[in-house]
Design goal:
Elements lengths: L8 E6 L5 H11 L6 E4 L5 H12 L3 H25 L4 E4 L2 H11 L7 H9 L8 E6 L2 H8 L11 H17 L4 E5 L4 H24 L1
Parallel strand pairs: 1-3, 1-4, 2-3, 4-5
Helix pairs in contact: 1-8, 2-3, 3-4, 4-5, 4-7
The structure holds thymidine-5'-diphosphate.
């Protein structure tokens, strides 16, 4: 990894309904002069398609978890690594922490120590993000926002989302220099301005440091 780089890989995380995808779209506009690569997990690759099918069929939490991990591998291979190699800024709507937060819940009681298992599956090949913006909000408010959406996924239940958000906050506590916690109840404009400002600053300093 380029030792001068500060932020090149940025991820957006949070429970369903926090406005993560809306933020992702807004950043495409506010950061367009940087020509970032906008991507997501489940990815737009063929493995991402398999993941979407697994979510819809919801048969086996281990199959689902392994597909999410396989999708991450393909995402890194075909999108993330080539973009980073070209020196691009990459912004991903969901990434590894989604697995750590969600699959820790779906695998609870299925296997011992799900988080440790998930982390060990990623070790040695994943690329750790430089910054992760975690959108946090009261569960009831997130569910209220999700009501307008039809065809809910099995993750979008109150008891699941409560645990997922707790997991996210624990991940943030364990890695405070990477995570930035965002109050997702704030006005959309304020959030977009704050996040794009932080990315702009981080990416610019990564460029100037690299030039030195
Ligand atoms: P999401 O990004 O919300 O997709 P969409 O916009 O199509 O709803 O992802 C779908 C669901 O998958 C979401 O509820 C979170 C869940 N998920 C995991 O459980 N683990 C993961 O590793 C990822 C990437 C997503």
């Amino acid at each position: 990894m380029d030792p001068g780089r500060l932020f090149v890989l940025v991820t957006l995380e949070g429970i369903d309904g926090t406005g993560k995808s809306t933020l992702h779209k807004a950043l495409a506009k506010s950061l367009e002069d940087f020509h970032p690569i906008f991507t997501r997990e489940p990815s737009e690759t063929w493995v991402g398609e398999a993941v979407r099918r697994a979510i819809a069929e919801q048969k086996n939490p281990i199959v689902e978890a392994l597909l999410f991990v396989a999708d991450h591998a393909e995402h890194i291979n075909s999108i993330i690594r080539p973009a980073l190699a070209e020196g691009k800024l990459v912004i991903s709507d969901r990434y590894t922490d989604s697995r750590y937060a969600y699959q820790s819940v779906t695998l609870d009681g299925v296997i011992p120590k799900p988080l440790k298992w998930l982390q060990s599956l990623h070790n040695g090949w994943t690329i750790v993000p430089d910054r992760t913006f975690l959108l946090v909000m009261p569960i009831d408010e997130a569910l209220e926002r999700l009501k307008v959406k039809t065809g809910r996924e099995h993750f979008e239940r109150k008891e699941v989302l409560e645990k997922v958000q707790t997991n996210y906050l624990e991940l943030a506590q364990a890695d405070p220099s990477r995570f930035v916690i965002i109050d997702a109840t704030k006005e959309k404009e304020e959030i977009v301005q704050f996040v794009s400002g932080a990315i702009r600053q981080g990416f610019q300093s990564s460029r100037s440091r690299r030039r030195r």
